[in-house]
Amino acid sequence: MTKREIPCPQCGKPSIFAPENKSRPFCSERCRLIDLGEWASEGYQIPVEADIDDFSSADIDIPSPTRH
Description:
Blueprint: E1 5-7, E2 14-16, H1 29-40
Antiparallel strand pairs: 1-2
């Protein structure tokens, strides 16, 4: 049976996707730990648009009324 190779999600090098590769889908323990560190430091985030509920009144610049 041929072993399936996939690109490492971290560095792009070929990685064997089989039970004998303890770091799969990564090519090495190093790449696996780099990815884990990114998750732990919240480096992977999905960008979202800010919602009005995300702000408090202190975050909103309300101009003071002007008198004529």
